[in-house]
Design a protein that fits this description.
With about 180 residues, the chain is of the alpha+beta class. Helices cover about 20% and strands about 25% of the residues.
Amino acid sequence: GVGPDGLERHDEVVSVKIPGGVQDGMQLRVQGKGNHGPAGGPAGDLIVSIEEEAHEFLVREGSNLHYELHVSFPDAALGTSVEVPTVSGKVRMKIDPGTQSGKVLRLRGKGLPNVQRYGTGDLFVHLHVYTPTSVSKEEREILEKLRDSENFDPYKAQKDKGFFSRMRDILAKKDIFGS
């Protein structure tokens, strides 16, 4: 119908191209698709506000994505191959033998496109080694045997020294040489 301002009211379906990498709260302007101006003036612009839906597994940080990967202790110790979700489908990723809990692996270019410039972000896979909350009698016996192995003693088995060991060595050397 025609309103009191003499303008005819009707709905129109408008196709809007959403560029890759848009974020929650961004606005897109579609020129000439807003309301007609007064006294037959030119149509205004249509403003489209972007609302981003959270992904089930991936967390966004700009154009980078983060994923929490939980692996079993045997898989972390022996190495394995796992599937990791990305925005374009699942990819296989290798977990090296001896991978430590807390390690962050980077899959370059598996993030989101950057809306302001060229390039694609990365997917950061945060690795967590799962510790079971209960074990069977047989599993307990196996774990008891492993407990006594030097390979499973975190202090004796450190061939590749951690941060605190290196700091302790550096501080010890300073004391010896008086520097």
